[in-house]
Write a structure and sequence with these properties.
408 residues, alpha/beta, Rossmann fold, seven-stranded mixed beta sheet, binds glutamic acid, NAD, oxidoreductase
């Protein structure tokens, strides 16, 4: 597998040259402020002890407290978390929210643990990191395989250990624990807003009113974005999860599909749809392809075979730098992760802000504020890319680096 961290550093070097940033500034940004590795002992239900590896990387806080999710995955390692922390720094700067960049994780397959084991593991992560966390220091949130319930255990543990009563130490909490309205679908909805803001610039001959959309990944982000696009009249032709995909040229009923997956645990066999592989799904002709699962799914091997008119990255790092070049040369525009999926962290920032002020905003208010921020950052990213005659990813990176530089 490609090393996401090396990819991120290569991207940094590329834009450093494009805009002639000072060498010292770029060199400093190549290193995290803090690289914390922990061992978390957990007593399993059978009484045995298992030690898990955990991480928190605090990359940079020039713009505000470190901010970023916690990932639970068997393949998660320090390099992945470092790359994601670095990308969080860039992402927060692209949106202009007053947050820095961080990321955490545990190498674990959560499906192999009972609920009690998962809770002890999550509390253990906080026990080891409590001195580094806090509303004005480092504010974690959910990421792959971490849920609002996990956040509520973590907040509880943080409050017990510190004696502080502040929900603002974590975001992505359940509503009754100080969570924000709209946080669940925020990444998907944010992607929809960004797509609309950039749509006029995406294809020379324009995209049709109702686009044919393909979504790879059907977790929180993938299922929400599929539902939102479908509710707005777009035709979601194909979706997939880690086991495989389904396809119906005339569009899938996403609401029904979400229920179907809940009931059966799988997408396969959904009425009126044909089962396809993830490889077939990525290569199916469409107006918009949305990778919404994991990193490095579009590589130099499959990039030349893609038949999408535009691509929007809702996962972090789904396109390798080599594939990015191929797509750029082929004239396929890519809306980069650091802009496209920033809706999640933006509503996390709203949650933090509401907690600190003791407020609770309606979902309508949250979505309105989200749209204002994403419209503005999409416009600024587009203008920056145009000014430098480059792609949207480089434009977004440069916008972010300029903002960080101003506060460094
Ligand atoms: N995990 C999400 C991301 O990668 C959200 C982070 C947050 O809300 O802090 O952007």
């Amino acid at each position: 597998m490609q090393n996401l961290f090396e990819n991120a550093m290569a991207q940094l070097d590329k834009v450093a040259k494009l805009k002639n940033f000072e060498k010292e500034f770029i060199e400093a940004l190549r290193h995290p402020d803090r690289d914390i590795r922990i061992s978390i002992p957990v007593t399993l239900d059978d009484g045995s002890l298992k030690i898990f590896e955990g991480y928190r990387i605090e990359w940079n806080n020039a713009l505000g407290p470190y901010k970023g999710g916690i990932r639970y995955h068997p393949l998660t390692d320090i390099n992945e978390i470092k790359a994601l922390a670095f990308l969080m720094m860039i992402k927060c700067a692209v949106t202009g929210i007053p947050m820095g960049g961080g990321k955490g994780g545990i190498t674990v397959k959560p499906k192999n643990l009972s609920k009690g084991e998962l809770e002890r593991l999550s509390r253990g992560w906080v026990q080891k990191l409590v001195d580094n966390l806090g509303p004005y220091k480092d504010v974690p949130a959910p990421d792959v395989n971490t849920t609002p319930e996990i956040m509520s255990w973590m907040v509880d543990e943080y409050e017990k250990l510190t004696g502080e009563k502040s929900g603002a130490c974590f975001t992505g909490k359940p509503l009754d624990r100080g969570g924000s309205e709209g946080r669940g679908p925020a990444t998907g909805l944010g992607g929809y807003y960004v797509f609309h803001a950039l749509r006029p610039h995406l294809a020379e001959d324009g995209l049709p009113q109702n686009c044919k959309v393909i979504v790879q990944g059907f977790g929180n982000v993938g299922s929400n974005v599929a539902e939102i696009f479908s509710a707005h009249g777009h035709i979601v032709m194909a979706v997939s999860d880690s086991k495989g995909g389904i396809y119906n040229e005339n569009g899938l009923d996403i609401k029904k599909l979400i229920e179907y997956k809940k009931a059966t645990g799988s997408l396969s066999g959904f009425e009126g749809a044909k089962d396809i592989t993830n490889v077939e799904l990525l290569e199916t002709p469409c107006d918009l392809l949305i990778p919404a699962a994991f990193e490095n799914v579009i590589t130099e091997q499959n990039a030349p075979k893609l038949r999408a008119k535009a691509i929007m990255e809702l996962a972090n790092g789904p396109i390798t730098p080599e594939a990015d070049e191929i797509l750029f040369k082929a004239g396929i525009p890519v809306i980069p992760d650091i802009l496209a999926n920033s809706g999640g962290v933006t509503v996390s920032y709203f949650e933090w802000d509401q907690n600190l002020k003791g407020e609770h905003w309606s979902e309508e208010e949250v979505n309105k504020k989200l749209k204002v921020i994403l419209d503005d950052s999409s416009k600024k990213v587009y203008e920056k890319a145009r000014e430098l005659n480059t792609n949207l990813r480089n434009g977004a990176f440069i916008l972010a680096l300029e903002r960080i530089k101003e506060k460094t």
